[in-house]
Write a structure and sequence with these properties.
The protein is mainly β and 259 residues long. The protein has one domain. Helices cover 0% and strands 41% of the residues. Strands 1, 2, 3, 4, 5, 6, 7, 8, 9, 10, 11, 14, 15 and 16 form a 14-stranded antiparallel sheet that branches.
Length: 259
Protein backbone atom coordinates (compact mmCIF):
# COMPACT_ATOMS: atom_id res chain seq x y z
CA UNK A 1 0.00 0.00 0.00
CA UNK A 2 1.26 3.44 -0.89
CA UNK A 3 0.61 6.80 0.77
CA UNK A 4 2.04 10.24 0.15
CA UNK A 5 4.32 11.90 2.75
CA UNK A 6 4.13 13.18 5.37
CA UNK A 7 1.65 10.48 6.41
CA UNK A 8 3.32 7.25 7.44
CA UNK A 9 0.42 4.80 7.18
CA UNK A 10 -3.29 4.87 6.67
CA UNK A 11 -3.64 2.93 9.87
CA UNK A 12 -2.73 4.22 13.33
CA UNK A 13 -0.29 2.14 15.31
CA UNK A 14 -2.31 1.26 18.38
CA UNK A 15 -0.90 -0.52 21.37
CA UNK A 16 -3.33 -2.49 23.53
CA UNK A 17 -6.12 -2.29 20.96
CA UNK A 18 -9.22 -4.39 21.62
CA UNK A 19 -8.93 -7.70 19.80
CA UNK A 20 -10.39 -11.08 20.56
CA UNK A 21 -7.47 -13.49 20.42
CA UNK A 22 -7.94 -17.11 19.34
CA UNK A 23 -8.35 -19.57 22.17
CA UNK A 24 -4.67 -20.39 22.34
CA UNK A 25 -1.79 -19.62 24.68
CA UNK A 26 -0.38 -16.10 24.40
CA UNK A 27 2.57 -14.68 26.34
CA UNK A 28 2.40 -16.74 29.52
CA UNK A 29 1.10 -20.23 30.14
CA UNK A 30 -0.20 -21.39 33.52
CA UNK A 31 2.35 -23.51 35.45
CA UNK A 32 1.74 -27.23 35.51
CA UNK A 33 0.90 -28.92 38.77
CA UNK A 34 3.94 -29.10 41.01
CA UNK A 35 3.70 -32.87 41.25
CA UNK A 36 3.69 -33.44 37.49
CA UNK A 37 6.01 -32.62 34.62
CA UNK A 38 3.61 -33.93 31.99
CA UNK A 39 3.87 -32.02 28.74
CA UNK A 40 1.31 -31.19 26.08
CA UNK A 41 2.30 -29.37 22.87
CA UNK A 42 1.16 -25.74 23.05
CA UNK A 43 -0.59 -23.70 20.41
CA UNK A 44 0.81 -20.15 20.40
CA UNK A 45 -0.16 -16.98 18.58
CA UNK A 46 1.41 -13.54 18.26
CA UNK A 47 -0.61 -10.52 19.31
CA UNK A 48 1.50 -7.76 17.78
CA UNK A 49 -0.12 -5.08 19.97
CA UNK A 50 0.45 -6.89 23.28
CA UNK A 51 3.20 -6.41 25.86
CA UNK A 52 4.71 -9.73 24.73
CA UNK A 53 6.03 -7.95 21.65
CA UNK A 54 8.84 -5.42 22.09
CA UNK A 55 9.89 -3.21 19.19
CA UNK A 56 13.48 -2.44 20.11
CA UNK A 57 14.12 -0.20 17.08
CA UNK A 58 12.64 0.52 13.62
CA UNK A 59 14.61 -2.51 12.37
CA UNK A 60 14.33 -5.01 15.25
CA UNK A 61 11.67 -6.53 17.46
CA UNK A 62 11.24 -9.54 19.76
CA UNK A 63 8.13 -11.52 20.67
CA UNK A 64 8.41 -13.50 23.91
CA UNK A 65 6.40 -16.39 25.34
CA UNK A 66 7.20 -17.22 28.98
CA UNK A 67 6.89 -20.88 30.07
CA UNK A 68 4.87 -21.65 26.94
CA UNK A 69 4.48 -25.38 27.69
CA UNK A 70 3.35 -24.72 31.25
CA UNK A 71 5.73 -27.21 32.89
CA UNK A 72 8.97 -25.23 32.86
CA UNK A 73 10.66 -27.45 30.28
CA UNK A 74 10.96 -24.45 27.93
CA UNK A 75 11.41 -21.34 30.11
CA UNK A 76 11.19 -18.90 27.20
CA UNK A 77 10.43 -19.04 23.48
CA UNK A 78 11.32 -15.98 21.41
CA UNK A 79 10.62 -14.83 17.87
CA UNK A 80 13.18 -12.25 16.74
CA UNK A 81 12.37 -9.98 13.80
CA UNK A 82 15.09 -8.10 11.92
CA UNK A 83 14.75 -5.76 8.92
CA UNK A 84 17.71 -5.26 6.56
CA UNK A 85 17.71 -2.73 3.72
CA UNK A 86 18.70 -4.25 0.38
CA UNK A 87 19.26 -3.01 -3.16
CA UNK A 88 19.96 0.57 -4.27
CA UNK A 89 19.57 3.22 -1.56
CA UNK A 90 16.34 4.56 -2.99
CA UNK A 91 14.28 3.42 0.01
CA UNK A 92 14.46 2.90 3.75
CA UNK A 93 12.20 1.57 6.49
CA UNK A 94 9.64 4.11 7.64
CA UNK A 95 9.19 5.15 11.30
CA UNK A 96 6.24 2.76 11.78
CA UNK A 97 8.23 -0.24 10.56
CA UNK A 98 7.85 -3.31 12.82
CA UNK A 99 5.10 -1.65 14.86
CA UNK A 100 1.93 -3.44 15.88
CA UNK A 101 -1.17 -2.16 14.09
CA UNK A 102 -4.74 -2.69 15.27
CA UNK A 103 -7.03 -4.69 12.98
CA UNK A 104 -8.68 -5.08 10.65
CA UNK A 105 -5.69 -5.99 8.51
CA UNK A 106 -6.31 -7.42 5.06
CA UNK A 107 -9.87 -8.34 5.98
CA UNK A 108 -8.77 -10.18 9.15
CA UNK A 109 -9.70 -8.92 12.64
CA UNK A 110 -6.38 -9.50 14.39
CA UNK A 111 -3.57 -6.96 14.75
CA UNK A 112 -0.81 -6.92 12.15
CA UNK A 113 2.94 -6.36 12.15
CA UNK A 114 3.73 -3.37 9.93
CA UNK A 115 6.41 -3.94 7.30
CA UNK A 116 6.86 -0.33 6.21
CA UNK A 117 9.08 1.15 3.51
CA UNK A 118 9.60 4.73 2.35
CA UNK A 119 10.86 5.42 -1.13
CA UNK A 120 13.17 8.38 -0.62
CA UNK A 121 13.31 9.75 -4.16
CA UNK A 122 12.66 9.02 -7.80
CA UNK A 123 14.92 6.52 -9.47
CA UNK A 124 16.51 7.08 -12.87
CA UNK A 125 15.58 3.60 -14.08
CA UNK A 126 13.08 0.95 -13.15
CA UNK A 127 14.66 -0.80 -10.20
CA UNK A 128 13.94 -3.00 -7.23
CA UNK A 129 14.76 -1.72 -3.77
CA UNK A 130 13.44 -2.56 -0.32
CA UNK A 131 14.14 -4.73 2.72
CA UNK A 132 14.46 -8.32 3.90
CA UNK A 133 12.53 -9.20 7.08
CA UNK A 134 13.98 -12.16 8.99
CA UNK A 135 11.80 -14.05 11.51
CA UNK A 136 13.75 -16.47 13.74
CA UNK A 137 12.29 -18.69 16.49
CA UNK A 138 14.62 -19.65 19.32
CA UNK A 139 13.66 -23.28 18.75
CA UNK A 140 11.72 -25.12 16.02
CA UNK A 141 7.93 -24.89 15.89
CA UNK A 142 5.26 -26.81 13.98
CA UNK A 143 2.08 -26.06 12.02
CA UNK A 144 2.91 -22.41 11.35
CA UNK A 145 0.37 -20.20 9.61
CA UNK A 146 -0.03 -16.48 8.93
CA UNK A 147 -1.09 -14.13 6.15
CA UNK A 148 0.93 -11.52 4.28
CA UNK A 149 -1.72 -8.83 3.86
CA UNK A 150 -2.43 -5.80 1.69
CA UNK A 151 -0.06 -6.27 -1.27
CA UNK A 152 -1.11 -3.56 -3.74
CA UNK A 153 0.21 -0.25 -5.11
CA UNK A 154 0.80 1.17 -8.59
CA UNK A 155 4.03 0.97 -10.58
CA UNK A 156 4.60 3.28 -13.52
CA UNK A 157 7.21 1.03 -15.06
CA UNK A 158 6.76 1.77 -18.76
CA UNK A 159 4.56 -1.27 -19.26
CA UNK A 160 1.35 -0.77 -17.31
CA UNK A 161 0.40 1.72 -14.64
CA UNK A 162 -2.05 -0.89 -13.36
CA UNK A 163 0.75 -3.18 -12.18
CA UNK A 164 1.64 -3.31 -8.49
CA UNK A 165 4.59 -1.45 -7.00
CA UNK A 166 4.90 -3.85 -4.05
CA UNK A 167 6.72 -7.15 -4.65
CA UNK A 168 6.78 -9.79 -1.88
CA UNK A 169 8.44 -13.20 -1.66
CA UNK A 170 9.51 -15.81 0.90
CA UNK A 171 12.78 -17.61 1.53
CA UNK A 172 13.39 -20.32 4.14
CA UNK A 173 15.34 -23.50 4.73
CA UNK A 174 11.97 -25.03 5.63
CA UNK A 175 9.21 -25.89 3.18
CA UNK A 176 6.65 -23.07 3.11
CA UNK A 177 3.56 -22.66 0.95
CA UNK A 178 1.81 -19.40 0.09
CA UNK A 179 -1.41 -19.19 -1.92
CA UNK A 180 -2.78 -16.04 -3.52
CA UNK A 181 -6.17 -15.28 -1.99
CA UNK A 182 -7.59 -13.54 -5.06
CA UNK A 183 -6.04 -14.43 -8.42
CA UNK A 184 -7.97 -11.64 -10.11
CA UNK A 185 -5.96 -9.12 -8.07
CA UNK A 186 -2.59 -10.76 -7.29
CA UNK A 187 -0.22 -12.87 -9.34
CA UNK A 188 3.12 -14.58 -8.69
CA UNK A 189 4.45 -17.67 -6.95
CA UNK A 190 6.25 -15.98 -4.06
CA UNK A 191 9.84 -16.44 -5.26
CA UNK A 192 12.34 -13.64 -5.81
CA UNK A 193 12.06 -14.25 -9.56
CA UNK A 194 8.24 -14.28 -9.48
CA UNK A 195 7.13 -12.33 -6.39
CA UNK A 196 3.54 -11.87 -5.31
CA UNK A 197 2.30 -8.60 -6.79
CA UNK A 198 -0.75 -6.83 -8.09
CA UNK A 199 -1.42 -8.06 -11.61
CA UNK A 200 -1.80 -5.68 -14.58
CA UNK A 201 -5.45 -4.66 -15.08
CA UNK A 202 -6.37 -6.17 -11.74
CA UNK A 203 -9.91 -6.66 -10.51
CA UNK A 204 -10.60 -4.53 -8.59
CA UNK A 205 -8.53 -1.88 -10.35
CA UNK A 206 -7.84 0.11 -7.17
CA UNK A 207 -4.20 0.58 -6.20
CA UNK A 208 -4.92 1.08 -2.49
CA UNK A 209 -7.14 -1.60 -1.02
CA UNK A 210 -9.43 -0.89 1.96
CA UNK A 211 -8.60 -2.40 5.35
CA UNK A 212 -11.43 -4.88 5.01
CA UNK A 213 -10.33 -6.31 1.64
CA UNK A 214 -8.68 -9.72 1.32
CA UNK A 215 -7.77 -9.20 -2.36
CA UNK A 216 -4.13 -8.38 -1.56
CA UNK A 217 -3.62 -11.30 0.85
CA UNK A 218 -1.40 -14.39 0.68
CA UNK A 219 -2.03 -17.04 3.38
CA UNK A 220 1.17 -18.95 4.25
CA UNK A 221 1.67 -22.33 5.97
CA UNK A 222 4.64 -24.45 7.05
CA UNK A 223 4.61 -27.89 8.68
CA UNK A 224 7.87 -27.21 10.55
CA UNK A 225 9.72 -23.95 10.90
CA UNK A 226 12.70 -22.31 12.59
CA UNK A 227 13.35 -19.26 10.43
CA UNK A 228 11.96 -17.52 7.38
CA UNK A 229 12.49 -14.27 5.51
CA UNK A 230 9.93 -12.01 3.86
CA UNK A 231 11.47 -10.11 0.96
CA UNK A 232 9.65 -6.81 0.32
CA UNK A 233 10.61 -4.77 -2.74
CA UNK A 234 9.38 -1.67 -4.56
CA UNK A 235 9.29 -1.38 -8.34
CA UNK A 236 9.22 2.18 -9.63
CA UNK A 237 10.80 4.77 -11.90
CA UNK A 238 10.82 8.54 -12.46
CA UNK A 239 7.08 8.69 -13.14
CA UNK A 240 6.31 8.60 -9.44
CA UNK A 241 7.50 10.66 -6.51
CA UNK A 242 8.45 9.72 -2.96
CA UNK A 243 5.85 7.71 -1.04
CA UNK A 244 5.32 5.34 1.88
CA UNK A 245 4.44 1.68 1.40
CA UNK A 246 3.19 -0.96 3.84
CA UNK A 247 2.29 -4.62 3.93
CA UNK A 248 1.38 -6.47 7.12
CA UNK A 249 1.82 -9.86 8.73
CA UNK A 250 -1.27 -11.08 10.54
CA UNK A 251 -0.89 -12.99 13.83
CA UNK A 252 1.47 -15.96 13.44
CA UNK A 253 0.04 -19.23 14.80
CA UNK A 254 2.42 -22.10 15.67
CA UNK A 255 2.56 -25.28 17.73
CA UNK A 256 5.46 -25.67 20.17
CA UNK A 257 6.26 -29.39 20.59
CA UNK A 258 7.43 -30.94 23.84
CA UNK A 259 11.20 -31.36 24.20
Amino acid sequence: MATDPPGLSRRLVVKGAVWTTPAVILATAAPAAAASNACTPAQLVTDWTSAAYTRTSPTTGVYTWVNPLGNGSVPVLTLTVTATIVGPTFSTVNPNNLSGTAGPIGGTPGPGLDLGLTRLRNTTNTTVTGADYSFAFSQPVLNASFTIADIDGTAFNGNSNNAGAERVFLTSTSAMAGTVQDTAYLTGTGTSADPWRRRPNSVPTMASLPNTSTAGDVPVTAAALSQFTVGYRLLDNTSTGAANYNVWLTPILVTLPCP
